[in-house]
């Protein structure tokens, strides 16, 4: 995309007609008026072209912004989905560990011992998570 800024023509002030010019029937003032109007038309056309270029650039930038915002929203949603999936996998993993520890504890149950399964709450002994086995192991 080129950033070409054309030079604007400036209206040149015209002085009184030189000696020997314009002493006819007023054709010179009409010619000067027509010339000035041509300069104004050219300037108007130039500005109209620049305005159209700026509008198209603005539209292009707005479209890019909308596209990038949409992409960020997709990334955000993907991140939320990954966090949710991570939480589910972690919960499943912790449940599997708890089941494995419970199964291990059942296969090694000592005689005359006390088995407590704590949930992190409760009173006295057995606070915390998991399985606690106290006592003398048999065998």
Main sheet makeup: 2 strands, antiparallel
Number of helices: 1
Class by helix and strand content? mainly alpha
Poorly predicted ranges: 20-25, 119-139
Query: Which assembly state applies to the chains in this document?
Result: single chain
Describe this structure in words.
With 139 residues, this protein is mostly helical. The protein contains 1 helix and 2 strands; from the N terminus they run αββ. It has one helix spanning 27-107; strands spanning 114-119, 129-134. A two-stranded antiparallel sheet has the order 1-2. The longest helix has 81 residues, at 27-107. The model is unreliable at 20-25 and 119-139 (pLDDT under 50).
Q: What would you say about this model in short?
A:
With 139 residues, the chain is mainly alpha-helical. It is 58% helix and 9% strand.
Please describe the topology of this protein.
Layout lengths: L26 H81 L6 E6 L9 E6 L5
Antiparallel strand pairs: 1-2
